[in-house]
Amino acid sequence: MTTNDVIDHLIQVVQDLPAYGQAALTWLTGNMWWLISVPVIVGPSASVARRRLGRKPLRDRQAFELLPTTGFDPVLEDVLRFAKQLAQAQRSVSRWAFTPVRGTAVRVRLLSQGGLLTMRIEGPAQAAAVLRHQGYGQCEMRAVGSAAASAERPEIRLGAEPDAGPQTALAA
Predict the structure, then answer these.
(1) Mean pLDDT rounded to a whole number for the chain
(2) The pTM is what?
């Protein structure tokens, strides 16, 4: 095959492009019914499957609290090392196509209970070994019960006294 043959073949392909376009348009208009129905069926069914498969990882989460000592003052390197450790905890959980990202995510919460500031780290049960490794030298790590049972839900009372019950809030 010579260079002239290659050039002639390319010229022939370019000249046939309008015919290829017309054939593609004819095929699309003839098969439009299933091209539209496939995403309409596959999209919601994949969403339902992801939601159902994500229930177990969200239910099986573990939490650890880091309680700082009075002299706790981490340097930047310690903070970066701890952040890297948290990123590795999420990567240590094997994920596949239908496992939602929120099921494998690591959540960090700063809580203040009675004036004492604590940091709670929640993550999937498969990553508990990675989460359990203490990142800061001047902190005590304590396991908390299941993360779903111990999650604090803030109470928001609109227009009520702090000690008043829900009956008073509705009457006001």
Answers:
(1) 77
(2) 0.53
